[in-house]
Here is the input.
Amino acid sequence: MSQSQVVVNPLQEGLRSERAGEPCAMVILGAHGDLTKRKLLPALYALFTQDLLPPGFCVVGLSRTQMTDEQFRTSMEESIHKYASDLKFDNESWERFASCVYYRSANFGSPGGFGELPALLSELETKHGTRGNNVFYCSTSPSLYMSIVDRISESGLGTRKAGTNAPWPRIIVEKPFGTNLETALELDEHIHSAFAESQVFRIDHYLGKETVQNIMVLRFANAIFEPLWNRNHIDHIQITNAETLGVEGRGSYYEEAGNMRDMIQNHMLQLVALTAMEPPISMDAEATRDEKAKVMRAMRPVDLNNIDKYVVRGQYTKGWINGQEVPGYREEKDVSPTSTTETFTALKLYIDNWRWAGVPFYVRSGKRLAKSVTEIAIEFKKAPLKLFAQSFGEDEDAFGPNVLVLNIQPDEGISLKFATKQPGPVTRLRWLSMDFKYGTAFGVRSPSAYERLVHDCIMGDSTLFARTDFVESSWKLISPILDKWQDPDCPPLDEYPSGSWGPESSDRLLGAEGRKWRLL
Amino acid sequence: MTVSQEPREFLSGKLAQVDVGRIEKELRALWQQAKNREEGIAGDIVRAASFTLVLFSTDEGSEDKLAVTLDELMAVHPCRAILTFFRQDKPHALDAWVTARCHLMGGKKHVCSEQITIYADGALPGELASVVSPLVLSDLPVVLWWRSRNLDHPVMQALTRCTRKIIFDSSYEPFSLTVLTQAADRVIQEADCIWLADLNWRRLDGWRRSLAEAFDGFPMDTGYLTRIRGVKVMVAAGADSTAMSTQGLLLTGWMASRLEWHHERDKTKRDAIGFRSGKTSFEVEYLADVASPASSGTVESVEIMFDDGRELKVVLERHGESFLITAHEANTESKESTRVDQHFSESILVGQELELMSRDRIFEQSLLVAGEFTRLVK
Here is the structure.
């Protein structure tokens, strides 16, 4: 379909509201679910209070539950109070926001299941001036994604038209994008039957975090780091995502997904790509995503014959977290007592390109670990000569490397570890950390990841969304490992007590090469 | 929360006795004192500054009001604040003291910024600048917040040597258009080294947005921007004042620069500016609303006439604690586009400018055009 030209309004130039996008309606499919209550509606209300939503913006909630507009609004107001206490709520702004929030019941699985939605969207076009621009947010079980695409197509709501940066309508899809390479390709093919790739926004909320966005700024806006950012100066990279939480009532989901699908295939590989990518030729969405895709293509497939040298999987048993005894994974609700689902994964990855040849990327992610922390640590090579060896004493470890740490959560910031001389007549060296913390340098509230990503979608900016080739490459890396784990010859799942740092085999992954996980 | 609410008296006397090094020493003592008291309060103390804010005020007695404003501002924008109160008609004296403003962040850390207050009575411009310059933080941007009417003040010249951005407010004397000429001249003179910002321009954000959005197809198509045949700007004003305010002129400057209107010198008078757009001539007319409760000089409504007889009226309305700017297109079916124009405090407006540590090209272009108008008005 040909796309009409978008006429530029010269009065919009330079306005802060350039960040408000074109008028549109957001249809939330699965509006009665947890994600809508905890994240989406609070994010939309936060954007509204900051005047970052376009004029005429409306929300239409859609799910199986029968509810009136008013009941849905009340339910959403309660959710904001419950889950977004950091937001400045006031009745007046809520009333104005809520007056643009609507609800209809629907059955996504049946033909004609969208019911009154097309008529309502048409009414909103006249009433609020949405211009027929719609965003469909799939906040449902992934098993419904294909049916939703069918409903959009059959109801005539998928007709493409031009928009600023990206055509309308747009569709936002939550992870997981498939469960393996085959299902991911099948899902993509189905989505592409109704939407062009430029209309598809695959959300990975990690990419909406301020600190994750800052990785590119740190690397490409500061000239001092990039010359060091390669195999000549970096010994290895450690990326850690540790959670103290267990499966928190999502046992049935986790049994299907496991840590590899839930965290590694998407969030962690995105962090690897952002850390390893070449500078893009511009900050254009495609230029950035091109570079990330190149990293994925250069990633060496795991040697399945020696899988234990590259991948470790573990499952938590009962233990202690923050002074509280917690159950093991197999004792959790909706989890099989003989489950072999991994709750911990550690990988050693190599990127076979000029910059990273021979530099291992150690990635670990797990539940019920000792502390909740997500970080990227760049460990530089040690100084070539131990000029101050005596000043550190006998401890070889004390002669440590410089480490640049990008703290993703909870204390977002950057720190650099370096040696310095202790005051006094004798030369004694100490390793200190020079810290930058977002929370103290900027007194402003950081937008939530969903605020950022939903806003970007409305703006038509897909930079922070996963592109189809990235998803495909990530499954090409991960699927063979998942398949191998089904093989009876594969090394078994290792157990680790809750409150520890994962199974011992995880330490051996690095120890075999004379390295250690960072003490966090 | 403020750790050290009480001002520490530091120095009093003639400039010759001022030792800037002692101010730094006092600052160090202040932080040591704060650290020693750390155990008495919840959380750690972190000293933070990402720029130096130099405030210049000639307004006697404004310190109390500014204390609240700075507290709000520094909670969001940690900085070293150097407050200078310049009182030309007092006997020569220079007093200074240091304080810390601390805010609890996330229930964990007290983020503290330092404030140096200097009273410069009867001092020469160079004297004050010589005290301020060594106190700015090395290699970080310096923002001069000019809380005074006259942009050609001699101290301005002395202080701008180390400044990256100047924030002023052309609403102090809303019908004295000279400030726009002075600001426009400064944009021309300092084009490459200093960025200028006007809080009165920032107050127009809601207006600019409402007007821009009104031409995004709802209620008017963007094509109507080339079909404008007259504009009426209603401004809150006293009975004896002109209707042409600094804010009204900035708004007109913005429209003229964005829409490529060329002013017509011979058609410009006390309450109207003549323009030509393409081959068509028209006027922007300024009207005074003497009954308005809004601050003097504030734009109250903008009415736009088109060549096919349609009319768009954009009006500022008070709704409880907030303001709405509403666009009505009356000639055809009744449609309206509404946008809140929050009634921002001075600290919020300055805060917005501190977030924009770059040149505001649209403002500069609007200011340059508005500066030209002020020279034309008869």
